[in-house]
Amino acid sequence: MTFIAALLSSTQFAMAGIRPGAVWPDNRGIHINAHGGGVLRCGDTFYWFGEHKADTTSSAMVGVTCYSSKDLEHWTYRGVALKVSYAKGSDIERGCILERPKVIYNKKTGKYVMWFHLELKGQGYAAARYGVAVADKPEGPYTFLRSGRVNPGIWPVNLANPDTTALTEAMNRKPELQWWTPEWMEYIKQGMLTWRDYDGGQMARDQTVYVDDDGKAYHIYSSEENLTLQIAELTDDYTAHTGRYVRVAPGGQNEAPAIFKHNGTYWMITSGCTGWAPNKARMFKASSIFGPWEQLPTPCVGPDADKTFGGQSTYVLQLGDNFVFMADIWRPEHPSDARYIWLPITFADGVPVVKWTDEWDITSLLKNR
Ligand code: DGJ
Q: What pLDDT does residue 15 have?
């Protein structure tokens, strides 16, 4: 090899890669605008869906964007997969809050199903709804089906017979029963808010969806005022809840769930609740998706690991035996300039580790996916 050829190939090697936190230009040279998102693989093509963020507001002014790639490194803009509506009063009216979209493919119906967190326009974060939309092609266009609260009138399977008289009394003891007192936390754990929302349905904010090996899909979301995660089974067509659901880590204040399965163990990486500011990631494991879930220390290692490297989890992408941790570095003052952290997950004694690296070659993971 000549000196020039060697230099070129070493430059290519050095440049090949994912640089967490940097500007990531798409095929047009524009920073990718797909935040709080996830990636769906269809054959040899990957589709990345995420929130389009405007320059000055975090509200949804455009919708859910889609990019595609064959190597996970070079991304082509495919347009707006789910558009916000210009119709006044629409659930997804322009100016609503539409966060953390994820798409799964349903083999039975041949449809692509998008789930997201929806807050109705002008209501801040009060609505706490899920939204669901479907499409015939991965890139869309997606048709909005419905938004709502989860499983109204149904108890979680791991809170089957709560003492509703005691919970009602506790709810009525406002303001004596103060937030964050040990007594209040005890009632939260016992399901005070599950009961409060029993008739209208459970709150659904930060969310993801997951398809298990047996084809069953699950909606995983922050519920109960972001204090408790819930995992709800989806119907065979993935567009609704079956009514079977569990509570996970009651009172633990987990957001940003990202789930994956390795050698029969389910792993979930989450964050704490600090708005757009980063905090220390948490990790959970279980041998059944319905739990029990056991909490472990953060999987993050390296500079700023205790702040998840400045980011917040959004998704874990499986590539054969390999997994990629995906997170967002939010920029609330300039939302469209939010950045991405993608890092390989390694395993130490069977436990996931997310180690910071400035630059890495994601294409090497495609060889044995
Ligand atoms: C943290 C959540 O993870 C984000 O998706 C977003 O809802 C912000 N909170 C809003 O403060």
A: 41
The phi, psi pair for 356, rounded to 5°, reads -65, 140
Cut 0.85: pTM above it: yes
Atom of ligand 1 nearest to the CA of 100: 5
Mean pLDDT by 10 residues, the chain (369 residues): 41 64 97 98 98 98 98 98 98 98 98 99 98 98 98 96 95 90 97 98 99 98 98 99 98 98 98 98 98 98 98 98 98 98 98 98 84
Using an 8 Å Cβ cutoff, are 223 and 204 in contact?
yes
Smallest CA-to-CA distance from 325 within 269, 265, 251, 264 is with: 269
Residue 255 Cβ < 6 Å to ligand 1: yes
> What type of residue is 323?
F
The answer, yes or no, to whether any atom of ligand 1 lies below 6 A from the CB of 51, is no
Distance 275 CA to ligand 1 centre (A): 5
Atom of ligand 1 nearest to the CA of 256: 3
Asked whether 105 lines ligand 1 (CB < 6 A), one says: no
Q: What six digits make up the tokens of 211?
A: 């398809």
Distance of CA 334 to the CA centre of its chain: 21
What pLDDT sits at residue 4?
A: 44
Phi, psi of 187 (to 5 degrees): -70, -35
Show Cβ contacts of residue 111 under 8 Å, excluding neighbours closer than 6 positions: 105, 134, 135, 136, 237, 238
Please tell me the residue having the least CA distance from ligand 1 atom 10.
Answer: 275
**Whole-number Cα distances in Å, 141 to 94, 119, 120, 317:** 17, 21, 21, 23
Q: Which CATH class is domain 254-369?
A: mainly beta
Most informative mutation of 276, 314, 329, 331 for ligand 1 (most atoms within 8 A of CB) = 276
